Fold these 2 entries.
Entry 1:
Amino acid sequence: MKRRSSRFARVACAAAVLAAAIAPAVWSTSASADDDQTVTWSVRPADESGPDGRAWAELELEPGEKTTERMAVINLGDSAVTFSLASADGYLTESGRFNMLPSDEKSTRAGTWITLPSTVTVEPGATAVVPFLVEVPKNATPGDHAAGVAASIRSEGASEGAAVGVESRVGFRVMVRVAGDVAPGLEVHGAGEYITEWNPLNPGTVVVRYTLHNSGNVRLESSSAVEWNGRTVSGETVELLPGDDRAVELHLRDVWPLGLLSVPLSVERAVVLPDGSREHIGPVMQTVSVWAGPWPQLLVLLSLVLMVGGMALRGRRRRRQVETLVNAAREAGRREARIEG
């Protein structure tokens, strides 16, 4: 896929260096602020001969073990380009997209396990296969560790008198499973809310909000579902690296407000193995309590009660008035009869 990067930048008094999020396989960007030339390149996992079809690198290594991996830097443009190469700690964004720390932030985890050349020059239309070393420290903890490698270019310019640097990069993730005890763990913290439809003839919506926390040492995939009256609402599959938190929200529509509701929440868990397969380890079950107050219906009922009560009160008043008139007429009749007698 080919696209042009947005020219985003942060202006500092002296100079600013920006790092774009790790891009898809192909990236296009202008080479400099004053140059209309477009640089287009791709970075993929590779073997000695070139790209090998993998989306990213998955490794299984012992503490203290090292291995050589390769990245293919493909120049799709019309002129030679010198790319900067770098590795960094990897993480997943809130949207679940993989990213690596920008160049102005220091890596402290798996990004420091990778050694690669600082630059590579690639002729137009050519592919450079760049070896890089992955060395696991002897004291590395068992489980999954995420890093990324990338090839980038930086353009320089000026805005309002200040120097501006824009770094655009393309790369892929490097996942390392360090041998040892695998301890998957997933914590679920949920809460519910009822959203009232103020038309008393319409049911409302139950919103189940919960946070997933990967408390184990391996990568997980999680999918969630809530049930109500035979209906099931499922959420998207979520990937979680060790230590990750992810907020999820599910909506159960057309639920009548019946007071305290107990909504079953089921969260499936699967360990993602280095070969890409999944090992299911059973769901986490939780009941989310939601108070669904029938306020519109109660308001209608109250209105009906007040209306009926008002009608009854007016009826009683009319009867009293009639009785008063009748009694007055009788009394007047009796007085007239006494006078005539």
Note: The two ends are 117 Å apart (CA to CA).
Entry 2:
Amino acid sequence: MILMRSGSRAVVFALLIALALVAVVQWRAAAREARVAETYPPSGQLISHRSRQIHAEVMGDGPDLILIHGASGSLREFTFDLAHRLKDRYRVVLLDRPGLGWTDRASDDVQGLLNRAAESPAEQAAMLQVAADALDVENPIVLGHSFGGAVAMAWALSRPEDTAAVVMVAGVSQPWPGELDWQYRIMDTALGHLMVPPLVAAFAPDPLVRSNVEAIFAPQTMPEGYLEHIGADLTLRRKTFRANAEQINGLRPHVVEMSQRYPSLRMPFEILHGTADEIVPMRIHSEPLARQIPGAVLTRLDGVGHMPQHVVPDDVEAAIDRAAARAGLR
């Protein structure tokens, strides 16, 4: 009989406890994700492309208008209100960005696990353009909010002759100084990439989620019913949480490169940005962009934070209508 030493028994016991804890975390994460999928299923259609799916929702009739959401979100960001305000005069095409909502990642999970690769804005735009082509979108106005602004810029750069106009709403367009918040830096490590998403998916408390979303609206107040509509837990799913963090961590080098090509763009640009936006500061992004794009119009929204589409939707609508008029679509 082989007797196990006390030290060895302690190691084995600790290992078993650790494995049990991992199993509990993964079980809780999977259970929460299942509830989210049941509560917030795809609201539109799933367009297949090379074994991947792209989630799109279409409403209304008129000139094509593409709406691209920001980080930690989905197309539900725009179905809360804005899309319904526009569908009487535009064919509104809402798209989940790759890795978020119900759109698959452009890269496979194994690649992401090994090197934490992120889809560039150009890769994201290309994947969304596949869905737009399948929907027979022609010469669209492309609106991007926050991170979606970088994807809108990539869209315009890749299809300058088939993009009627661009509307940037608190959009990311320029390289920024300094580092990202610590939460993203942790996710850029191998241990954080592996461990944090299951813990967040399993245990992130609803009050913490609410406070984080409320901070995005500051200094304004989050609209009643907004959190319940967007389904914030969609972003807390393990794969989605990883994709979101990787895209943010990898974004800066891409906007460094893209920003050098902005002066070549000749389509109408309407740029809206809140002066109180501390998440994507106007002075770093929209003010330089307005100087780079010939004929771009910058509208400064006094005292507005990062969510103009909810805080001052009339201004966003007016900018879209101006873009359509300047492009000869209205």
Note: Residues 112-116 have pLDDT under 50 and may be disordered.
